[in-house]
Amino acid sequence: MKVSRREWLRLGSMAGMGVGLSSAASKATPAAAQTSANHRAAPQQKWGMGVDPGQSLPPEATNGPWRNLRAVKERKVFDVHCHAYAARVQGHNYKEEGELHAISKWQDYTNELIAAMDRHGIAQAAMNSAHETYETVVSTDVTPHLDRFVRSSGMPTNDSKGKDLTPQMVAEIYRTHLERDGCVLIGETAGDAFTSLLRQKKYTAKDLKPMADVVMKHDVPVQMHTGWSATVVRSYQAAWHWAEDVGAVLAEYPDIKFILGHTGGERATPDGWEAVRLAFSFDNAYVDTSKSPAEIVSEVVRGIGAERVMFGSDWNRPEILGYGPFHTRAVYQHWYNLNTIANADLTDDQRDWILHKSARKLLKLPQA
């Protein structure tokens, strides 16, 4: 059979296409199989992102940048914000946790706290009573370990538990804790009286003068809770509400040094930025970094300097939380809060101020 040159070229082209398609198909088959396999495989899930982590921990808990912090290596860290009592069993949601809080069966985790401090280079801490009475915490947990803890005024007390507080009653509690017990600061659970009394709408900031007078006489700082917290299971307050209350107190008593606990807490927006705004607005505003994001710590140091910023953890139990947002259940752990300082945009000298020098200077304690 005679075939013209044009026909041979056409047939050759078709054959080439066939070979090319066959070759491409043979090469594509493994890739397609791999794509299919990847489609079937479960996606890689980051810790706590959309899934309940249980009690598993991410790698940065044990091998995070916190290990390289100078103050950790030298065992000089001072934690200005921690507690040692929590419910014996955790709930798996807010309803269960609220019911457990109502039962008021509290577990003392002081020994676990000291062990955790040892693992993370924390030399000393200001332990503040929470849930259990101040008297129990001071006598049972702080006084036997004065090499590790300093005393801070706290609530509830034996006499005030279950009662409606007044400025006069709180002033007497402060006076007793400072003069009889030698407390070096009004800790969070006692300092919160400045804002909790305002929330009742029965008192103004001026009405809190009896409390302020005692504090100014003894020249001690007052620590107050700021921001949203997963452990507050029975109430809700918008960020601007608590910020206005704190601002009213800071403005009324400029001679008192107020420590804004948590610097607004784990949520940068809106609470963290509300705390930053307060710190930038008042010369008597100090902050502790417990639960704060690195971006908030970086920003507040840029604005007011590291000498008014102190490390805190808000540690209250050895395990991570069993309820609340999945990805922030570890915010009460030492490693989490130390990683925040390591990841913030700071110099090593600024980190030293935050991790131990600032608190010791403010509390009038010898430098490490």
Short overview:
The chain has 368 residues and is α/β, with parallel strands linked by helices. The protein has 15 helices and ten strands.
Compile the SSE list and pairings:
Layout: H1 5-40, H2 60-63, H3 70-73, E1 77-82, E2 85-87, H4 94-103, E3 106-108, H5 110-119, E4 122-127, H6 134-142, E5 149-153, H7 167-179, E6 185-186, H8 188-191, H9 193-199, H10 209-218, E7 222-225, H11 239-252, E8 258-261, H12 268-281, E9 285-288, H13 294-304, E10 309-310, H14 334-343, H15 348-362
Parallel strand pairs: 1-4, 4-5, 5-6, 7-8, 8-9, 9-10
Antiparallel strand pairs: 2-3
Helix pairs in contact: 7-10, 9-11, 11-12, 12-13
Structure description:
Strand 9, helix 13 and strand 10 form a beta-alpha-beta unit. This protein has a single domain (73-362), classed as Metal-dependent hydrolases (TIM Barrel, Alpha-Beta Barrel), CATH 3.20.20. Mean pLDDT is 89; it is low at 1-42. It starts with a helix and ends in a 6-residue tail after the last helix. The protein is globular, with a radius of gyration of 28 Å. A 4-stranded parallel beta sheet has the order 1-4-5-6. The relative contact order is 0.13. With 368 residues, it is α/β, with parallel strands linked by helices. The chain has helices at 5-40, 60-63, 70-73, 94-103, 110-119, 134-142, 167-179, 188-191, 193-199, 209-218, 239-252, 268-281, 294-304, 334-343, 348-362, and strands at residues 77-82, 85-87, 106-108, 122-127, 149-153, 185-186, 222-225, 258-261, 285-288, 309-310. Helix 7 (167-179) runs parallel beside helix 10 (209-218), helix 11 (239-252) packs parallel to helix 12 and helix 12 packs parallel to helix 13.
